[in-house]
Design a protein that fits this description.
single chain, mainly beta, Immunoglobulin-like, 2 domains, six-stranded mixed beta sheet, five-stranded antiparallel beta sheet, 7 helices, 12% helix, globular, signal
Length: 383
């Protein structure tokens, strides 16, 4: 990408290690459109982001807006997920949105044969488990696997579930109905998947069967991200499903973490410019009068062009770092500025959104207060 050098930066490790659950819906959904009568020349339309891909409008019957498929039950609709291929799964953390009105969910992937792989899944929040399974845990997950009831357990229990690969190629992650009465989820929420061990998946695929009326009602209540290709935000979205869902335990009061939101403030076709907003608790600001922030761009490893992950840092003067100095403040986007409960940072990235997406570029953000340790907020674009 023009003058950007390939960097393998040890200093980027805190950013690289942060949870980075890539949205499955940021993978393009490419659908063949019906050809004109007497023609065999197909044109394709492509949509990115859940909002574009699954708007509940247009064709009636077994169709959800843009995506079409068969129905598992009468009066339902099917959301066919886009193909999510290997180069996008190098980070081994991804997520898929389960909308309000979902009655059943089937989700699987393909791994190298004669290998072992382990995964942890959680509905509604990211799993905590990061360490690989022990031999006994792997065996227990393999012998106790109940995929056909896993969807109901994920939604109702909100607990981590382990899935392991039996070496045959296909990995079944989730299956089954919400309940025996064809009930549907009352809220929309994300399913998070983290690979704990094994080679990257070749791909994943799946389909979500929904109650059409309940899905449309829930879709209308979704709060969307502000990106060019909107997805639902990480918080649950309400709906009108009919199933019985156990709410997550909210008895424990946790410290309020700093939050980051990102919006695109550049015009279409112009070099991408982001507005990254950092919100902190007043007590954190009082204890830390100064703050430094880092904006890092990552090109994931993808074949011969980028055989390894490529990191580079955006500086406040509009240049990119080509070396990592001993003092990391030298590559900060904002160094030792006055702290506040609400801060905004607006890095301009030199390249258009299309140019950045062509290389699967991700933008990461982190900060360090005057008395605290480095905090990575992970990927902030694309959302």
């Amino acid at each position: 990408m023009r003058y950007l050098a390939v960097l393998l930066l040890a200093a980027a490790a805190p950013l690289a290690q942060a949870a980075n659950f890539v949205s499955l819906h940021q993978s393009a959904l490419k659908i063949a459109l019906p050809p004109p009568a007497g023609s065999y020349s197909y044109k394709f339309d492509t949509r990115i982001g859940f909002k574009q891909q699954y708007a509940p409008q247009g064709v009636t019957g077994c169709a959800i807006g843009y995506a079409t498929g068969g129905c598992a039950f009468p009066g339902g609709g099917s959301l066919a997920l886009p193909e999510f291929t290997g180069y996008q799964l190098q980070y081994k953390e991804f997520k898929v949105f389960i909308p309000a009105g979902t009655r059943s969910f089937m989700f699987s992937g393909y791994a190298p044969q004669r290998t072992q792989s382990a995964f942890v899944l959680r509905y509604g929040s990211a799993p905590v488990r990061e360490a690989a399974l022990s031999g006994a845990e792997y065996q227990n997950a393999q012998t106790g696997e109940r995929i056909d009831s896993s969807f109901a357990r994920l939604v109702n229990e909100r607990a981590e579930q382990f899935v392991v690969h039996d070496g045959g190629g296909t990995v079944r992650f989730v299956g089954g109905q919400l309940d025996a009465n064809r009930g549907s989820t009352k809220e929309g929420n994300w399913l998070y998947v983290r690979q704990l061990s094994g080679s990257p998946l070749y791909d994943v695929q799946g389909a979500i069967d929904v109650d059409m009326a309940q899905y449309a009602a829930g879709y209308a209540k979704i709060v969307w991200t502000t990106s060019t290709y909107p997805d639902p935000v990480d918080a649950p979205s309400t709906g009108g499903g009919t199933g019985t869902v156990t709410p997550p335990d909210s008895a424990t009061t946790l410290p309020v973490p700093a939050t980051v939101s990102t919006s695109v403030v550049s015009a279409a076709g112009q070099p991408l410019r982001l507005e990254i907003s950092l919100a902190q608790a007043a007590s954190d600001v009082a204890a830390n009068p100064r703050i430094s922030t880092w904006v890092a761009a990552l090109i994931p490893a993808s074949g011969t062009s980028f055989p390894a992950d490529t990191w580079f840092f955006r500086l406040a003067n509009g240049t990119w770092a080509s070396q990592v100095p001993a003092d990391l403040e030298g590559i900060a986007f904002a160094s030792q500025v006055a702290n506040a409960a609400s801060l905004k940072f607006t890095p301009a990235l030199d390249f258009t959104e299309a140019e950045l997406r062509a290389f699967n570029v991700q933008v990461h953000f982190g900060y360090k207060t005057s008395t605290g340790s480095f905090v990575s907020k992970g990927k902030v674009w694309p959302q």
